[in-house]
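Entry 14: structure prediction run for YeeE/YedE family protein. Input pasted below.
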Amino acid sequence: MQIIIAFFAGLLMSIGIAVSMMIDPAKVLGFLNLSGNWDPSLALVMAAALAVYSVGFRLVRGRSAPLMAEKFQLPSASKIDKPILIGAAVFGLGWGLVGYCPGPAISALSAGNTGTIGFVIAMIAGWYIARKLPLAKVAPKKSTGCYS
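Run finished. Output C-alpha cells:
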C-alpha cells in the first residue's frame, strides 16, 4: 500500500510540476532572471505549494505516526555544515545554468527532449561521483529529502 501511495503522490507532484510549467527551463530561467525580463509566475506556484504544505504539516503535526508507516522519517541533522552548503551551491548553480532541478527534470523526460535526457544522465553521474568523494562520507547515505 505504501508503494501505491508513494506512486500517486509522485504522480500528483509530476502533474503539478507540468501544469505550473516548471518542466520548461525557459520558464524557470525567466523566473531566475531578476535583471532582465523577469517572470514572477513561479513565485505564485511556490507560494501555493507553501500554503498546501503548511496546512498539511499542521494536520499531521499532532499525529504520533503516519497513516501507512510505523513512524515519521524526519531528517536528524540540524546544523548547517560544509556538505549542505556545497550541495546547496551546486544545486543552485545547476538550476540557474540550465533551468532544471531533479524533480522537474525527471518529469520532463516524458517529452523526450535530448537536452533533458542529457541533463538527467549528467545528474545521475553527478550523484554517483558525489558518493565517491570524501565529502560524501560525512553526509548520510540514505536520502531524507524530497528531491534527492
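Notes: The chain has one domain: 2-137. Will compare against the previous run tomorrow.
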